[in-house]
Recover the amino acids of this structure.
């Protein structure tokens, strides 16, 4: 059984940045990177909005840079998946499959997963015109025709934001009315660049390695099948925080995001901290996740010092 001062569950900007700060505080962190080391950014091609990369950077390369930086200061990075945790008493217990670890403090940075429709072409064209983040990728679709899938606040916000760049934004919604709040609906409905396709579902995303070229649609009322020429496809049907592992042990909101106290990263269990998209339903950006990772490491360091006094 291995014991650690700080055990970090998950990688990505939050996990790696927490590791950098914890390692520099001589806490010798252990990081279980999970099945997708680097998180959502490993499926992103060009990242142009992260400080320090004036020419932009490929998402996987940025995650590799952060991992190397964390290891340089003494972080142990394991390419393993945490299968179970027990936060009922200290030291905390964490299992990687059947291997038990214990820790004085735990930082959770398991992130969130964008929801997609699951239609053919969606996953194959991820990062090649298919996205779930307008803020991240909207810039690449200047003067192009694109589509947004969804009918809630997120979809209206994404569509409105994308009109800053795109020539035309089609909102594809499976019903004949929106679920979004009135103010968000009104803003989108009044925007001359946005066109709504009601009672319509996507059956396939069309394209190849060069990118998205369109979507195959079906009208749910008439059953008519058609193709719409677009070069960008934005799924805006929500995100699912990766918190299944912590149900019954940590407080979450009704969607599943971990609750933190005030502006800190403290969860309801003393000594367990949360950083990044797993606790942030609002911003969900690499830079805010990295900042939260820094906060979590500092919170953990100060909390551990207080326990030693």
């Amino acid at each position: 059984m291995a014991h650690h001062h700080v055990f970090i569950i998950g990688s990505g900007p939050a996990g790696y940045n927490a590791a950098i700060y914890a390692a520099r505080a001589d806490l010798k962190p252990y990081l279980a990177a999970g099945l997708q080391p680097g998180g959502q950014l490993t499926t992103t091609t060009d990242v142009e909005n992260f400080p320090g990369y004036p020419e932009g950077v490929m998402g996987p390369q940025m995650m590799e840079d952060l991992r190397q930086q964390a290891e340089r200061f003494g972080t142990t990075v394991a390419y393993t998946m945490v299968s179970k945790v027990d936060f009922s008493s200290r030291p905390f217990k964490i299992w990687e499959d059947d291997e038990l670890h214990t820790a004085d403090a735990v930082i959770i940075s398991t992130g969130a997963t964008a929801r997609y429709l699951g239609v053919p072409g969606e996953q194959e064209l991820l990062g090649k015109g298919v996205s779930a983040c307008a803020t991240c990728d909207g810039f690449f679709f200047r003067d192009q025709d694109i589509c947004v899938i969804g009918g809630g606040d997120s979809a209206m916000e994404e569509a409105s934001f994308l009109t800053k760049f795109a020539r035309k934004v089609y909102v594809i919604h499976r019903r004949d009315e929106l679920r979004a709040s009135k103010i968000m609906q009104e803003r989108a409905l009044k925007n001359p660049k946005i066109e709504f396709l009601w009672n319509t579902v996507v059956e396939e995303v069309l394209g190849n390695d060069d990118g998205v070229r369109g979507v195959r649609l079906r009208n749910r009322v008439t059953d008519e099948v058609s193709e719409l020429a677009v070069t960008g496809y934005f799924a805006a049907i929500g995100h699912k925080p990766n918190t299944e592992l912590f149900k019954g042990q940590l407080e979450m909101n009704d969607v599943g995001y971990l609750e933190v106290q005030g502006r800190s990263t403290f969860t309801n269990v003393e000594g367990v901290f949360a950083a990044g998209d797993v606790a942030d339903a609002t911003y969900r950006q690499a830079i805010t996740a990295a900042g939260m990772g820094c906060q979590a490491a500092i919170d953990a360091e100060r909390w551990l010092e207080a326990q030693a006094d």
Residues 121 and 185 are 29 Å apart (CA to CA). The two ends are 26 Å apart (CA to CA). DSSP finds six helices and 19 strands in the chain. The mean pLDDT is 93.
